Amino acid sequence: MVMPGDHVTFTVELIHGIAMEQGTKFSIREGGRTVGAGTVAEILH
Q1: Domain membership of residue 13 as a residue range
Q2: CA–CA separation, 31 vs 45, rounded Å?
Q3: 20: domain CATH number?
Q4: Half-sphere exposure (CA, 13 Å, Cβ side) for 27?
Q5: pLDDT in tens, 2-26
Q6: Distance separating alpha carbons of residues 7 and 3, to the nearest angstrom
Q7: How is residue 22 annotated by DSSP?
Q8: Structural domain total, the chain
Q9: How do residues 21-43 score in pLDDT, each as one tens digit?
Q10: Distances (CA, A) of 45 to 6, 12, 36
């Protein structure tokens, strides 16, 4: 579990492809609430 203020690194595999590049900011939403946010650090192929 990640708590507010924690910093984590994780790998995500998207269901649908979208345009993304290193440095792109993103948010993770669940049920209309933002539950996380970050920046793309690396693109894996």
Answers
A1: 1-45
A2: 30
A3: 2.40.30.10
A4: 7
A5: 998 999 999 988 899 899 999 999 9
A6: 9
A7: T
A8: 1
A9: 999 999 999 999 999 999 999 99
A10: 27, 12, 24
